[in-house]
Amino acid sequence: MINRSIESELLAALARFPAVALIGPRQVGKTTLARKIAAERPDTLYLDLERPSDLARVQEPELLLAPRSEQLVIIDEVQNAPGLFPVLRALIDEHRVAGRFLLLGSASPVLINTSAESLAGRIRYLEMTPLTLAEIDVTPGSLRQLWLRGGFPDAYAAATDADSFEWREAFVRTYIERDIPNLGYRAPPQSLHRFWQMLAHWHGQIWNASTLAKSLDASPQTANRYLDLLCGAFVARRLPPFAANLGKRLIKAPKTYLRDSGLLHYLLNIIDIDHLEGNPVLGASWEGFVIEQVLACLAHREANFFRTSNGAELDLVLQLPGQPGRFGIEVKYSAAPRPSKGFWHTLDDLAIERAVIVYPGSETYPLEKRVTAWPARRIPELAKFLLNDRPPPFAPLAGGS
User: Fold this and answer.
1) Which H or E element spans position 127?
2) Helix (H, G, I), strand (E, B), or coil: what is residue 74?
3) Phi/psi at 318 (5° precision)
4) Vertex 155, ends 149 and 160: CA angle to 5°?
5) pLDDT tens per residue across span 113-168
6) In the predicted structure, residue 377 carries a pLDDT above the cut 70
């Protein structure tokens, strides 16, 4: 079993909050982690609301849950019973102790907004992402495997690239045909699959609902609704632009990405690393992969990109919690990354205190006082570096690039 980084944060949240919601896409490992926690607490009640028998048990939730005020109750796929949330609120208010409920869900709080309304002030949300570089034994080969196959555990650990591709094919089909309708959305499966594929081709670009809507033979409102749906299901990301009053014309539309590189590659029919490295999407794929890894390893869900109308840009602008300064992340698929002139102007315009250029090589070295070339395999160490004034060791890492 792969040890998941979020486990310690989850246990800490259960020690402080009456309810904790572990959310994230299907098949990401939420159930495996929850069952591990349940195995360590023999009196835990585990309910899987995809099982008709367990769903029937919560038809009278007060009778089932009120006598278990001292037990941990784990409710998997909680979005299947939205009417449960007001009852949980009443039970928590009646006996408010930490660690009463662990709720697992495959939809964002926006899509299951009854929980946000009913349990406000009583619940802590944690998002579980696909596997990160902090959770695997990072070698040059495993890094490329994670990038190619994505971070869903079954896709990453498949015996062959073909087996992984087949798993991702089934995942997309199931998501469209079953999971999204179960969230209450009645989008035609063929239209949604076509939109998802089009979004893959749009990966890393500025969002333009009208352009995608024309290709989909639909309205811009429908394109925006589909994007909202995929973002709420944790498979797409809408990266907002950084707003600043600089006296320059700034791009104000968001960029869109597919959050898992493996799903991106499946939708683009890329089956192995040779195919990927010869594909025009190579740079955009690497950019999206690195962005997701950075945000997951920094446990940072809020980020922006910056771009002016004349092309000056920065892939990520971060302001970490409790830190007054801004940090910049630029992504390059190059053995010797060279930032553009616009990159340096952006650092000055935004008063960026420290920036890194993440690339696929093996050495960490300075490009300028504020800027460091940073190997992708060291992304898990980024937070410590960005918040620490000491320079990193500028030496090759073992294993090569």
Assistant:
1) strand 123-127
2) strand
3) -120, 140
4) 75
5) 666 677 888 999 999 999 999 999 999 999 999 999 999 999 999 999 999 999 99
6) yes
**DSSP letters for 347-385:** HHHTTEEEEEEEESSSB-EEEETTEEEEEGGGGGGHHHH
- The single-letter code of the amino acid at 281 is V
Q: What is the Cα–Cα distance from 355 to 347, expressed in whole angstroms? A: 8
Domain boundary among 74, 93, 127: 127
CA dist 326 → 84, 349, 352 (Å): 41, 11, 5
CA angle, 393 then 395 then 397, to 5°:
110
Contact call for residues 129 and 296 (beta carbons, < 8 A): yes
Residue 9 · residue 102 · CB < 8 Å:
no
- Our measurement of the distance from residue 381's CA atom to the centroid of its chain's CA atoms, rounded to an integer in Å, reads 18
Q: Which two tokens mark 58?
A: 């919560």
Which is nearest to 102 in space by CA: 77, 80, 83?
Answer: 77
What is the distance between the alpha carbons of residues 202 and 215, in angstroms, rounded to a whole number?
A: 12
DSSP 186-255: ---HHHHHHHHHHHHHTTTEE--HHHHHHHHTS-HHHHHHHHHHHHHTTSEEEEPBPP--SSS-B--SPE
Distance CA 257, CA 204 (A): 5
- Identify which of 122, 158, 153 has the alpha carbon closest to the alpha carbon of residue 136: 153
Residues 342, 206: one domain?
yes
pLDDT score of 401: 35
DSSP state of 308: B
| Token pair in block for residue 20 | 């904790």
Residues 222 and 347 both lie in one domain: yes
- How many Cα atoms are found within 13 Å in the side-chain-facing hemisphere of 128? 31
- Interatomic CA distance for residues 114 and 318, integer angstroms: 30
For the chain, the domain total comes to: 2
Same domain, 267 and 214: yes
Residue 339, both tokens: 């930032």
Establish how many alpha carbons lie within 13 A of residue 249's alpha carbon, considering only the half-sphere containing its beta carbon: 3
CA 245 – CA 194 distance, rounded (Å): 38
Q: Considering the domain boundaries, does residue 339 fall inside one?
A: yes
Evaluate if pTM is beyond 0.70. yes
Domain with 63, as residue range(s), is 6-127
